Amino acid sequence: MTRKALLGGASAAIIAALAAGVGLADIRTGDSLVINGEIEIITETAPPEHLAGVFNTIYSGWVFRTDETRAMQADDFDNPGMLYVEQGIEAFNTAMGTEGNSCASCHENPESLADVRSTYPQWDEAHGEVQTVEMQVLECQTERMGVAEPYGYDSQQMRNMVALIASVGRGQLVNVAMDGPASEAWELGREIYYTQYGQMELSCAQCHENNYGNLIRADHLSQGQINGFPTYRLKNANIVSVHGRFRGCIRDTRGEPYAIGSPEFVALELYVASRGNGLTVEGPAVRN
Amino acid sequence: MAENVVPRVRVPRDASAGESVSVRTLISHPMESGARRGSDGNLIPRSIINRFTCEFNGEMVIDVTIEPSVSTNPYFQFDAVVNETGTFAFTWYDDDGSVYTDTADITVA
């Protein structure tokens, strides 16, 4: 074989690898996660229809983490995110607002909200907009409970409440509707996903679609799935919301992030959530 | 005064005599190191759990001195040999003088 042919063969192999989005050399796939020995989590599965041809398999962020971090999520006692869920339960049962109601007055117990996290963001007919779980909590507080000072969108209390709602939905299949009236927001989210932001001119897709599994500095890029949110991040020693993570990513591109709770981030959340249709709710997940 | 400080322990209910059991403990606590500055530029006063002990039927199993570098929500896991039915008593000592306690019973068959 000539030298030229060797080189040609090598570069063809590299191109093939890039085209397949392969960077999984350091990542151990095929493991399963069972929380508390009973909640089965789908950490890898076939991609939703709209991502056919983009991914062969979609992976939860859990797959990209170390054994130690993975293990923390397998038991609620070891999962620090559950401390915030406990605070969420307390708030759930505490009366707030002029009506003297708590969340429990209407919803009885958090378990009655088990299918919420897996289907949000979703279209709200009455308000004519796509709503996130956070917006739904705010709607309850301001329109039904008479709370004068509702939770801030990214406040600790809000994250606790959303973590509680996610925790009771763990194991449920993510199934976010992207058609019908939500399609406009979904399209906007899709556009944002593929738009390059900041001085670094990076889009979500460049890291999380084309380079997942590869190293970004000392860390493995994930596919950017949000089924594990709100997520306990070891580096923050706290739970982080979806929009908080979006803001962090755009900030890292040296761009000016959209505001937390803005229509742009809601649209992006809808689109990114739909990329995880088929995975299961994990929040509060544990990540580094 | 640290808020939302709640101790938690996880100990097996049963064991056989002489068996080594795994004891897990966690206390939710901000563990403010005293080296950080707030938004006003002033040091945030140190507020940590500075000592953790575990006794079994009055006998000391483990006595830990905790320094400011330990992270939020200190988690300790250790193994203990149990020879008889009894009670693990856990104690956490806070900088502010508060003492938090929890217990766990174990039956030796």
TrEMBL record, chain A:
SUPFAM superfamilies: Cytochrome c (SSF46626). This is SoxAX cytochrome complex subunit A. It is found in: Periplasm. One of its GO terms (molecular function) is electron transfer activity. It catalyses: S-sulfanyl-L-cysteinyl-[SoxY protein] + thiosulfate + 2 Fe(III)-[cytochrome c] = S-(2-sulfodisulfanyl)-L-cysteinyl-[SoxY protein] + 2 Fe(II)-[cytochrome c] + 2 H(+); L-cysteinyl-[SoxY protein] + thiosulfate + 2 Fe(III)-[cytochrome c] = S-sulfosulfanyl-L-cysteinyl-[SoxY protein] + 2 Fe(II)-[cytochrome c] + 2 H(+). Heterodimer of SoxA and SoxX. Substrate binds at R245. The active site is at C249. It is an enzyme of class 2 (transferase).
TrEMBL record, chain B:
InterPro entries: Ig-like_fold, Ig_E-set, SoxZ, SoxZ_dom. It holds the Pfam family SoxZ. Residues 10-104 form the Sulphur oxidation protein SoxZ domain. SUPFAM superfamilies: E set domains. This is Sulfur compound chelating protein SoxZ. It comes from Roseicyclus mahoneyensis.
